[in-house]
Amino acid sequence: MASSSKVVDVHTHIYPPSYLSLLRSRTKVPYLLDLPDKDTPPRLIILPSDDDASIPPKSRGRPIDSSYSSVEEKLRFMDTHNIHTSVISLANPWLDFLPAEESVEWARTINDEMQVLCKINGHRLYAFATLPLSASPEAIVAEIVRIRQLNRIRGIILSTTALGSGLDDPALDPIWSALEELKMMIFLHPHYGLPPEIYGPRAAEYGHVLPLALGFPLETTIAFTRMWLSGVFDRFSALRILIAHAGGTVPYLAGRIESCVQHERHFPPQAHGHRGPVRDLTAVLRDNVWLDAVVYEETSVNAAVEMVGREKVMFGTDHPFFPPLRKGAKGWSSVQTNVAAVAAHKASNLIMGGNAVELLGLD
Known about the structure:
The structure is a single chain. The chain is α/β, with parallel strands linked by helices. Helices cover 39% and strands 13% of the residues. Strands 1-5-6-7-8-9-10-11 form an 8-stranded parallel β-sheet. It has a 3-stranded antiparallel β-sheet with strand order 2-3-4. The longest helix has 21 residues, at 209-229. The mean pLDDT is 93.
């Protein structure tokens, strides 16, 4: 693989105008709460725990300023951090909350809008599309086929619950089949976290630290492991998946997961005669999985590379999340920390951009 001097961000989000309009039209989670002070950013009420009448409106959920929706601000952020190209994706909670009869039209609207936003900005922006996951598998497959014709789309972003029952749901097979046949990358991203009681009675004192630092990675790990355990990668051996946040804890727990399968007496026998998946988890990680490098620490980047290979790890920022707490700061410490963690690796040129350019066919 040829290295590239371009820096490519494969994990960067946006809420396009049409999506903000959708959220503003709602009164149930998720919704956008506009405040009386027009100079104060609206609040995104994204989780049930955010929708608490005992919390002052200005403190509920997350403030959503223009950095979450403005392409101009996205490009300025990229310029500040010397990022040549970004592969943008709709941020959670995507369209999972919509009834089936609405989700297909909204997916088309948002995907077409993402195509236009990318196309008018030359070769600086590409996108992962959004699927109408509350619709029928047939409607979802139809949208996959349609977006394959959009020249700025490079794959799809997928939540850990998919159709609502997780990634081991047999009803997903037509969708896996379409994604495999069309060689479309799946960007697996968390949202739902873990049950709140896990964080204990003092969780509110710690803000979003426990859900984001631990809940998201463990949610991702469980979702992907269920996918592997159910034989998805045996049935669809050419499926390609990019896992957010360097795979959650998969790189660190892969050996333990495989050992538990090998020693599980009650694992139901499969039609092929094996107990559990035919392909080893290690083989699936090497052949089917890519990881972003959004882990902020050199040792963690090394673990990701060791697990999937130097040509399968790619830089990301998670913009516009994790902004500086200090107003007026030009550079983002979250990005600088991530860049430093990657720069310490001997394959840094590949991770920072070369891998994404080749894998996703970026100009």
